[in-house]
Amino acid sequence: MAFSEAQRKAIQHDRGPMMVLAGPGSGKTTVITYRIWYLTEELGVNPGDILVITFTRAAAMEMRERYEKLSGKSSRVTFGTFHAVFFQILKLAYRMTGANIVREDRKRQILKELADRCSLEPEDEGDFLNQLEAEISTVKTGRIPLDHYYSASCPDEAFRQIYRGYDGEMRRTGLIDFDDMMVMCYELFTERKDILSAWQKRYRYILIDEFQDIDQLQYDIVRMLALPENNLFIVGDDDQSIYRFRGARPEIMLGFEKDYPGAGRVLLDINYRSTAEIVGAAQLVIRHNQKRFPKTIRSLDVHGKNVLTRVFPNPRAENRAVVEEIRALLEAGEKPAEIAVLYRTNLGPRMLMETMMGYNLPFRTRDQVPNLYDHWIARDIFAYLRLAAGGRRREDFFRIMNRPKRYMSRAAFPGEKVSFFELRQFYADRSYMEQILSDFEYDLKALSRMSPLAAVNYIRQGIGYDRFLEEYAASHRMQASELFEIADEIRESAASYRTVPEWEEHIREYREELLRQASRGKTPQDAVTLATMHSAKGLEFSTVYIIDAVEGVTPHGKAVLADDIEEERRLFYVAMTRAKRNLRICSVRTRFGKPAEVSRFVLEYLPPTDRRKTK
After folding, report:
1. How far apart are alpha carbons 336 and 512 in whole angstroms?
2. What angle do CA 261, 262, 268 make, to 5 degrees?
């Protein structure tokens, strides 16, 4: 196989630390595979002395298969994820088995019970438990003193109580989670130098893939394990570090040469995947980051179409145009598997999916896309609409009786059905409640005569539901804009229907279609890929659409600090470099009826003459 000079230099590195900066599409997996082959076949290294660490089990299996195919024999090289390697060490030290690893459902059950004890009643339990898990992981892997950690998901004292309760339950039952594997391995190596020495002798050569995704605890363990020979061969791209929310720190890779003075460095600077136009545009964007290794990536002089940038009046026009273009591509013979639509968050594709369903286009999602109409804000709005239509179920009253605040108590609803006459009797001794109940009844009658769009607007502004959302966000340490975006999405959906029953029928069909999509089990060959920018990492497609390239979406509205913006830019860079031949980036002038600004990342690759056209 023919290698570039940079690839050959990386593959034939002998001893000591080496950093390989691998740009997008630069053949890093090939380099790692041939590097292992070179060690075993050319330098005579015992395969059992080699440890290859990846971040996913699939990557480890692919690497093993490619090496065994290359060497023509079964491998004694160890391929595994960080967790698999660390657990193997713990198994031998503490006689652990797979039964010691906590199941995900058991973990969430423990956290739910602890949250209940703290009287926490989140609206979205699944999202809340996800946040709790992430914060517990941050405390563990960051080795942060619990009293110095300030929670974003719940009151600080409640979080500390949940953390201690979770840790105590895990110890009591002899269970560990993935973070415990790393913490225990670090403590084992720190306290038992004899055990550390044994593993150092076992693994004399360590290769790490996707090094830019490493966290501090993983790095500290690897540094101990690599001693004293420091045959540490790391491969990654600081420009593709996009997992800070999981603890990844690009500065670890940036500081590697300080930790290992004299370490070799090789830049794999040829992108074998994308056209020169795509590579050039992506380079113009990523160069705006300050905390990175200066580097220039080039293509193999393969030219194609310029990156197509389009600004639409609104998301509805954007999605319709994208779907019509995809249909035209498919009719022209493009394979569905060669087309992808990428977006910043998993809330992004709702309207696109509905449009694709209307055109009967095949698609699959790489992320679990939450059903907008299952969100608690949607459930609140539909509770209002059912009551407005004459429904009197107690559960609907419970949902919205204090959204906004009406000083109503559950004790006022003794039966399954609710009547305003009985409510007035219950509150007869509180004169101020008469006006509140009259206003409530008036609002429901007013809603009963409105279209879906007018009704949603009236609930939010006339009744004061937006005011409730602001208060909810403040009490739950959230940005109100996050909740308003959900409410805006619901309003956008309502605008397409004349009556509430017509809207409800669409929602029912949409839910059924989502279930059908999930159960069809489409293979990559027969469906267009819809994916978040995060989950698209490592993939490639002939044609890529990036939608909703506006400020507040990408970069995300939560990105405020300089480091946050740099991470968002890396994420956009990753999305751009998934495209092989065609890259089409879409923005809008208005979003949910409000003016929208084209993303700064778009302006960074456009020439000055084209930037003016986006205004």
Report:
1. 23
2. 110
Structure tokens at 211: 């090094």
Show the tokens assigned to 117: 């004890």
Measured in residues, the chain has a length of: 615
Please tell me what DSSP assigns to residue 599.
P
- Answer whether 210's CB lies under 8 Å from 32's CB: no
CA distance linking residue 443 with residue 466, whole number of Å: 15
Question: Could you tell me where the beta strands, DSSP code E, fall in 190-231?
Answer: 205-208
Spell out the residues 6+ positions from residue 50 whose beta carbon is closer than 8 angstroms to its own.
36, 39, 40, 77, 78, 203, 204, 205, 206, 207
pLDDT range class, residue 520, cuts 50, 70, 90: low
DSSP 551-564: TBTTTBTT--SHHH
Q: What is the DSSP string of 413-433?
A: --SSB--HHHHHHHTTT-THH
State the Cα–Cα distance between residues 305 and 88, nearest whole angstrom.
50
pTM of the shown model: 0.90
Alpha carbon 377 to chain centroid distance? 22
pLDDT band (50, 70, 90) for residue 75: confident
In the numeric block, the tokens 């609710």 are attached to: 418
Long-range contacts of 451-454 (CB under 8 A, 24+ apart): 451/494, 451/497, 451/498, 451/499, 452/494, 452/495, 452/497, 452/498, 452/499, 452/500, 452/502, 452/503, 453/491, 453/494, 453/495
Can you tell me the mean pLDDT for 441-446?
94
Rounded to the nearest 5 degrees, what angle is found at the Cα of 168, between the Cα atoms of 164 and 169?
120
For CA atoms 14, 20, 25, 26, the dihedral sign is negative
Tokens of 595: 């003016």
CB 249 within 8 A of CB 216: yes
Backbone CA torsion sign across 460, 599, 214, 103: positive
- pLDDT, residue 523, reads 57
When mean pLDDT is compared across 42-51, 365-374, 597-606, the lowest value belongs to: 365-374
What are the CA-CA distances from residue 592 to residues 504, 559, 568, 596 (Å)?
Answer: 21, 21, 23, 9
Residue in 435, 485, 428, 441 with CA at minimum distance from that of residue 460: 485
- Residue 296 in tokens: 């220039």
Whole-angstrom Cα distance, residue 299 to residue 198? Answer: 45
Decide the pairing of beta strands 232-236 and 78-81: unpaired
CA distance 267 to 522: 38
Closest by Cα among 572, 498, 560 to 533:
572
Over residues 93-109, mean pLDDT: 93
> Rounded distance, CA 25 to CA 273, Å?
5
pLDDT in tens, 218-236: 999 999 999 999 999 999 9
The pair of structure tokens assigned to 163 is 């953390």
Q: Residue 387: what are its φ and ψ, rounded to 5°?
A: -65, -40
**Angle, CA of 592, 598 and 600, to the nearest 5°:** 135
CA angle 11, 68, 84 (to 5 degrees): 85
- What the block records as the tokens of 276 is 């020169």
pLDDT per residue as tens digits for the range 144-187:
999 999 888 888 899 999 999 999 999 999 999 999 999 999 99
